[in-house]
Amino acid sequence: FMAIPSGQPLLWANMRIYLLDLAEGSPLVKLGFGQDPKFSADGQRIVFKASDGQLHEINTDGTSGHPITSGGAEKSGPNYPPTPGDERIVYWNTTSAGATRYGDIAWRLPGGIEETLVHGTAERYCYYPVWRDAGRILFTISEGNDNLYEYTTALGSYAALTALNSAADESDPFPAGDLVGFSSTRSANGGGGYDLYLAKSDGSG
User: Can you tell me the distance from the alpha carbon of 60 to that of 176, in angstroms, rounded to the nearest whole number?
Assistant: First the structure.
């Protein structure tokens, strides 16, 4: 998890990453400055955005920390695929041109190759990618309001999850077995703030 130590100003620059072992009850491991930590599928490594705006990897015992991207846009929200040994790390880029921010969905492939999968525009900011399974990536596009999308790697294309999108903000998708979890501001079922939902991709259940 990420947190700011007690007593320090609530600034992103003060954000640190920590590891809490619930099974062993061992002492808290401090992994240094950073944000958006995620475990690899085998549980042995963590990828995160470091304070330099680039992606770094570190072993779960805090050793062998090193950058895996360099230069260019700020890279956020990295995620490993769900299959051990699969090295495709998905994330989103943020670039700024004056007051306009552009967000792209991208991945880092073995050998350090970085490719953009979905290009954002001044009207479409893409962010929060996460692997649904080994062949599909869930993400959000902010286009007036936030909507859920899915990228299919075999096709190299993406489409809106129209059955899950509404006039409210739908964002932060995550896989939950056969279901898709997401955050929504819809007012149905007593909601209205940001609430968590689970649904089938066709909007049922």
Answer: 24
